[in-house]
Amino acid sequence: MSRATREAYRDRLLALLGGHPELMCLDSDTGLFGAEHAAAAGDQYLNLGIAEHNLMGIAAGMAASGRMPFVNTMAAFATSRALEPIKIDIAYNKLPVRIAATHGGLAAGHLGPTHQALEDLAVMRVLPGMTVVVPADAAATEAFVEQSLELAGPLYLRLGRKPSPALPAVPPPVIGKAQTLRQGGDVVLASCGPYPVLACLAAADLLAGQGIEATVLNMHTLRPFDTRTLVAAVRPASLVVTLEEHWRSGGLGGAVAEAVAEEAPTRVLRLGMPDRFVDEVGNQEHLVAHYGLTAERVVRTVRTALDAAARAGRTERVDVTA
Fold first, then answer.
1. Which of 27, 94, 110, 139 is most buried (most C-beta within 10 Å)?
2. pTM above 0.70, yes or no
3. Per-residue pLDDT reduced to its tens digit, 203-237
4. How many CB atoms lie within 10 A of CB 304?
5. For the segment 156-176, what is each residue's pLDDT rounded down to a tens digit?
6. How far apart are alpha carbons 15 and 266 in whole angstroms?
7. Residue 177: CB atoms within 10 Å
8. Contact 277, 115 (CB under 8 A)
9. Are 63 and 96 in contact (CB under 8 A)?
10. Are 127 and 120 in contact (CB under 8 A)?
11. CB atoms within 10 A of CB 162
C-alpha cells in the first residue's frame, strides 16, 4: 500500500501527543496540519506561519525549557533559510528538537529549484550531534518518530510529499542501523529514501537475471552512520554503487565513500543528481526518470564497471556517470 511519509509522520505524532505532555508540534503553515489536526492536538500545537528562522529559534527555547518540539517545514527552507538557528541554537546546545523536513529531494520538483532540497543531507550530516534519518516508507517513518522520543540531541527527518510504496517485509528499522534488504557477494547497492531504495531493489532483481548477485542496503541513517554493516557487506564485493535523490556531493554517496576508503577500500560509484540546478520542468516521478535515478541506470553502471574490469583484468577508472 502506498502512503506519504509526511502524512505518516503527522498521524503518528498526533497519536503520541496525548500520552506525552512534553511533546509540542510546531507548524509552518505548509498545509500538512489542517484544522482537524490542530484541534486534535489542542494546546500542543502551534502554527507559527511561514517564518522558518523563528520556528527553529522558538523550538530551541522550548527544548531548553524541558519540552520536546517536533517542527515541520519544507526541507529546502529548513536547511537553508533556517540553518543558522539550527546550527547555533539547536545543534550547538544539543537540544532535543525534531526537524521533520517535508518535500525532500525532488518532491517539490514542480515548483522548481527554489523548493527542491538537493543539499540538505550534506548540510545536516556535518553538524555535530545531529542525527540524520531518511525513511524509505511510511512504516519506517512511524518507527523513527517513536524511536526519536528516546534519542538525545537533535534529529533531522527527511520526508517526501506524495504517497510511495511500502518496502518488502523486513525487520523493523532502527535509527543508526542499516537494513540489509537483499544479500549477494558481487556488488553492494546502497541507497536511502523511497525512490532510490525501490530502484536498487529492482536493479538487484535485474542483475540477478544476468548472474550478478547484489547486496542491497537501505542506509536510512546518515548520522550516526552504520559503518560496521556497510563494511561487512563490502568486503566480499568488488564494487559499491550508491543511489540518492540528492546532489552527488556530500550526501549518502559521500558518507559511503568516506567509510569505505577508511575501512575497506573498494571502488565506489556515486549516482545522484548532476552538479547543476534542475533545468527540467516536471513532477517528482518525471525528474527522477529524467535524471536517471532508476534501476536501469544502476544496472548499466554496474555492468559497465564490471565488464571494464574484466576486460582489463583489474579495476580501472571508467566514466559511468553520464
1. 27
2. yes
3. 999 999 999 999 999 999 999 999 999 999 999 99
4. 16
5. 999 999 999 999 877 889 999
6. 45
7. 14
8. no
9. yes
10. no
11. 16
